[in-house]
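User: Hey, my collaborator sent me this sequence without any context and asked if I could get a structure. I don't really work with proteins. Can you help?
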Amino acid sequence: MDRSNPFEHSFAGADKPSTVRGDSMDTNQQTTSDISEIRTAVRQLCEKFGEDYWLQMERDGGYPADFVAELTSSGFLGVLIPEQYGGAGLGVLEASAVMEEICRSGAHAGVCHAQMYVMGSVLRHGSDEQKSRYLPKIASGELRLQSFGVTEPTTGTDTTSLKTTAKKVGDQYIINGQKVWISRIQHSDLMLLLARTTDKSEVTKKTDGLSTFIIDVKAAEGNGLTIQPIESMINHHSCELFFDDLAIPAENLLGQEGKGFKVILDGMNAERILIAAECVGDGRYFVDKASAYASDRVVFNRPIGANQGVQFPIARAYTQVEAAALMVEKAAKMFDAGLPCGAEANMSKMLASEASWAAGDVCMQTHGGFAFAKEYHIERKFRETRLYQIAPISTNLILSYVAEHVLDMPRSY
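Assistant: No problem. I've predicted the 3D structure and written it out in structure-token form, which is a compact way to encode the shape of the chain:
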């Protein structure tokens, strides 16, 4: 078997794992074996791009194009794309393993994760022509679909109140408005954009009247689209976007006009699960680092890890990360089986983001002053994992969702 690409391991025939999970022991054992092979292959790929590579990327504000290219050529970024379009045709469970291992290696999966879940909106809502045009090129790496244009500076998470408009004029849509915190757009060929096509005052449901469009970024920039990078605490390549009479072909509408909110929502469960998996990877990274350092670092003639005040917080962090990992696995399996999993996806994201942050705090404390030295890499990962309690959905909004939709309590906002 070619370990550099586990998706060629007799997956063209009957041995390929199903993306809908069965209950049989044989199926579970096969899935476990496949995921173990994926983890090993991702780990080996990441070893070529050590932590010093990521440190230099941050210093330069650079984008790891060679890392992303190798992930693509190895098949990992196409794991969710069906085989008929050149992908691996696997599920979110396998995709989660990819994202987790990237983060556990000390890398930053945020440079490429959007391609997995943004692609799903095209797969589920695109026309046959759109899927045939874009998905094979995304799978091969010829095109990158790395950006979701949803958030706006004045509305934040109140998505249905967004101000960006798309007006149909003949066989075009004319787009005007502003977006913020749009990541990786300078390193993406395509972006999915959510805009209002019918004024909110003219619709019965506030979620109606929104539409999703496929934007050719390279063609749009300088022709109605202005991209302004945002300097931030992590190297996430986020930008502010300004649309000034950007004209796009009407055929770039994704799904039905006025029903774009559903197009976006359909990608959000996968997004939450995959980012939760990244947080599990971050958490395991911190626990690995902290336990190794505490075992090796000798002060007062004994390893600091021999002290309960040092080892107990690390052990607690480990249990929290492992518990979160179980919720991520449950959510991924439900998603792949086609079951409703909004609660599980949200809970997995909350639990994993909190566990990774707690593990990072323990890792910082264990390393003491050395944790602040960039050469130890911990402070970079600490900053990166903090993001996920805020984005792509805040912890408070997850708690609101659980209270309202799971516990049947009154809406709180």
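In plain terms: The chain is about 50% helix and 15% strand. You can pass these tokens on to your collaborator as they are.
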